[in-house]
Amino acid sequence: MLVHGVLAADPLIGFDLAALGRNFWALTVDGLTYGAVYALVAVGYTLVYGVLRLINFAHSEIFMLGMFGQYATLLALGFYPSGDAFDKGVLLTVVYLGIAMIGGMVVAGGAAVGLERVAYRPLRKRGAPSLVFLITAIGASFVIQEFVHFVLPALTGGELGGVNAEQPIRLVEPEVQFTLFGANVTNVTLIIVLSALILALATDMFINRTKFGRGIRAVAQDPVTATLMGVSRERIIMLTFLIGGILAGAAALLYTLRVPNGIIYSGGFILGIKAFSAAVLGGIGNLRGALLGGLLLGVMENYGQVLFGTEWRDVVAFVLLIVVLMFRPTGILGESLGRARA
Amino acid sequence: MSTTSTPAENGATNGATQRAGQGQAASPARPRPELPPAGQTPVSQRPHGGVGDRFRLWWDALARPAQWGVGVPFILLVALLPILNIPVLTTVGTNFGAVMAQFGMYALLAIGLNVVVGQAGLLDLGYVGFYAIGAYTLAIMTSPDSPWNVTQPEGWLSDDWAWLAILPVAVAITAMSGLVLGSPTLRLRGDYLAIVTLGFGEIVRLLADNLDEVTGGGQGLKSVAYPRLGVTEELPNGVFSAGNVGTTLSSGVWWFWLSLVFIIISLLLVGNLERSRVGRAWVAIREDEDAAEIMGVPTFKFKLWAFVIGASIGGVSGAIYAGQVQFVIPTNFNIINSVLFLCAVVLGGQGNKLGVILGAFIIVYLPNFFLGRTSLFGIPIDGNEIANYRYLFFGVALMVLMVFRPQGLIPVRQKLLTYGRELYVAARRALARVHDGAPPAAYATSAAASGPAGGGAGRTPATGTRPDGATDHDETTDGGTR
Question: Which residues of A touch B403 (CB under 8 A)?
Fold first, then answer.
């Protein structure tokens, strides 16, 4: 919460350029942490869209399940909600965070594959039109949210889920590590940005360098020819959902580091929309576009909230999306996963 | 859109049909918008076995006066539902009149959203934005908390008629907002449109939440105007006032009746549009936008029309809502409502006006039905718990429906297209009888083969191509019968 104290004084819509100038670098750094989360979630949208031409509306719920997954992992490791952060030392903290992230990845990845199996595969078998897919996705989104809202607390004896957000488990106390152009960089920021960077690089390598990645790109480009060349379309689709889910699970842990009170059944919705906006911003179906769009959206949102006031944060994101689409309907880097070089 | 058909245009039709067919064959894996399976067999081959079909046949066979003779008593029956208090139907936990009033509003919303989603095929996930704009326009102009209040004592407008006077303003502003949202975004492809409208719905809510000076922010606006009619000693504020509760004719019933009036008006309006050039253009756009564009349908213009008309109907519903509850807060216009409206449209059967009304009824009525109920047909249940789970049920229902009945509970029977085909078949039969001995069998597919001239009307505007290769000649509808 470095910059959130800066508010516009104007009662209707403020425009505080001076504040933006004063805090430019701090805002950029903080925006990058949000942007990193958006970027990782956006990859899930963009990959599925590239392969299936489907807006996986329920991906935000996959992310939300990832948050619960890492939380449950931390509980299982013996941590409990408390006001102060656990002080385990740098190395152990990183190990625990890694385990929690894997927990989130497993839950989110599993859920994504399960979703594909239960909801989308029957429709694909019937050759349903795209609107039907989208409505199914909306239905699935309802089901997952309400599962965490009502069913999960019943299953876990009130430990997880329910109407209220989970009490945060703090592993890392935000501490300023160094300053960059006058902006304080905390350990939380470092963890988020570095992990996201590593994951993004790994995903990019996976898509562009490996056999499976080539399969994904092939199916995105031309499903029929890819099938004729011996690529199993069904397996590729499953893999795509799995990667999207895994990255959403990782993003879930990073997000809870930045926003510890965000673990709630409805917590994925707005973030999901923004991540999708990020994917569209960069050019949907385009992996690097999603990463760029995510970072850009996170940073712009932070600038916007200081320019106009904190309450306009979400509006800035959506207006940005509409404006970009008006002038560049295929996003900044253009669509297409398949056209990325082989 | 051209009104005369030239040989060149006919050639373009056939070419487009062929190309569409080839595209389909080349990439079967990629999902393409298709017609629901029900429309795939020519109507004359389809056995008229279903209840819906039989009802439709029976209804279409009735003369106009007879249709009114059946329709008016039916509407009266629906209108009297909240008063009759039928034990199985009525709600236990809440006032049945209020539930019906909510149903009225949702039905209006479903009709409006159906124009956009069902008829023009544009996925609008931010429809709640129009609902909110309608409600907030009314609230801002009539609530004493707002700075732009025009009612007495500060303003010049009499309190008694303020609601009715502001209603057209609310509708106009909502229509305008539809224009403002539509004109930049309707050039986008379907998927983008969905997410942009979603963003729009959220922006409207956030504006309502953040523009404290005008909208009251999170506190909302209180004391919104309502029609002050039927003032008596017991009801100093009239029958529409929220204070009118506990009686048989509670305010909910009155609002339900009022919304019924608007439902009928909008049904007539939308129904007439559906049968007009505009409606045919919508069908063409929904089935294949590129083909429609090639055939000379100004797609952008008609998409914008659908958006504006849908928005204004949503605005009416919003105004009714603001008047009924007499106060508006941003949380009532969450995105989840948008999804719920879409649920109503899809559940009922997108494209079918009566179907979506049924969908709206289910969405509103079912949770309220269970509310407060402790037993159902003798089986003890926890109704409140079931009502809580409504989103879970709706989600499951949507998913199951999409697998087994994607066209909805009461699907649209491609009425316009079917009607044209039936007309054509009837004409061929009559001809065959005249010429005595000619084979009577003639299907729509043979109509496609013989080209638009076979349709007889000499117009090609809304000729859509379909994945199954048949060409729809709905231009026969304006061949002089209507």
Answer: 122-123, 126, 136
Q: Measured between alpha carbons, how far is B365 from B103 in angstroms, rounded to an integer?
A: 7
Average pLDDT over residues A130-138: 82
Contacts of B192 in chain A (CB under 8 A): 280, 325, 329
Q: Is the pLDDT of residue B48 over 80?
A: no
Measured CA to CA, the distance from residue B254 to residue B265 in angstroms comes to: 17
* Radius of gyration of chain B, Cα coordinates, nearest whole angstrom: 24
pLDDT beyond 70 at B142:
yes
Look-up of token digits 């930049």: B184
Q: How far, in Å, CA of A21 to CA of A36, rounded? A: 23
Per DSSP, the three-state class of A177 is: strand
pTM of the model: 0.78
Q: Which of A268, A290, A44, A294 is nearest to A192 (CA)?
A: A294
**What is the 8-class DSSP label of residue A312?**
G
d(CA A144, CA A142): 6
- Residues in B 25-44 with any Cβ partner in A closer than 8 A: 26-34
**In chain A, where are the structural domains located?**
50-268
Q: Tell whether the torsion through CA atoms of A156, A160, A164 and A166 is positive or negative.
A: positive
Contact A312 B335 (CB under 8 A): no
* Candidate from A211-220, A240-249, B250-259, B381-390 with smallest mean pLDDT: B381-390
Confidence of residue A180 (pLDDT cuts 50, 70, 90): confident
Instruction: Give residue-wise pLDDT tens across range B317-354.
Output: 999 999 988 888 998 898 888 888 988 888 888 888 88
Per-residue 3-state assignment (H helix, E strand, C coil) for chain B: CCCCCCHHHHHHHHHHHHHHHHHHHHCCCCCCCCCCHHHCCCCCCCCCCCHHHHHHHHHHHCCHHHHHHHHHHHHHHHHHHHHHCCCCCCCCCCCHHHHHHHHHHHHHHHHHHHHHHHHCCCCCCCCHHHHHHHHHHHHHHHCCCCCCCCECCCCCECCCCHHHHHHHHHHHHHHHHHHHHHHHHCCCCHHHHHHHHHHHHHHHHHHHHHCHHHHCHHHCECCCCCCCCCCCCCCCCCCCCCCCCCCCCCHHHHHHHHHHHHHHHHHHHHHHHHCCHHHHHHHHHHHCHHHHHHCCCCHHHHHHHHHHHHHHHHHHHHHHHHHHHCCECHHHHCHHHHHHHHHHHHHHCCCCHHHHHHHHHHHHHHHHHHCCCCEECCEECCHHHHHHCHHHHHHHHHHHHHHHCCCCCCCCCCHHHHHHHHHHHHHHHHHHHHHCCCCCCCCHHHHHHHCHHHHCCCCCCCCEECCCCCEECHHHHHCCCC
Q: Choose the mutation target among A308, A318, A327, A337 for the interface with B, i.e. most B CBs under 10 Å.
A: A318
A304 — contact with chain B (CB < 8 Å)? Answer: no
pLDDT score of A302 more than 70:
yes
Instruction: Say how many Å lie between the first and final Cα of chain B, rounded.
Output: 20
Residues of chain B neighbouring A221 (CB-CB closer than 8 A): none
| pLDDT tier at A321, thresholds 50, 70, 90 | confident
**Higher local confidence (pLDDT), A157 or A198:** A198
Q: Judge whether A336 is closer than 8 Å to chain B, CB to CB.
A: no
Strand pairing report for A176-180 and A183-186: antiparallel
Q: Residue A294: its pLDDT value, please?
A: 92
Lowest model confidence (mean pLDDT) among B182-196, B246-260, B367-381, B411-425 = B411-425
- CA–chain centroid gap for B449, Å, is 34
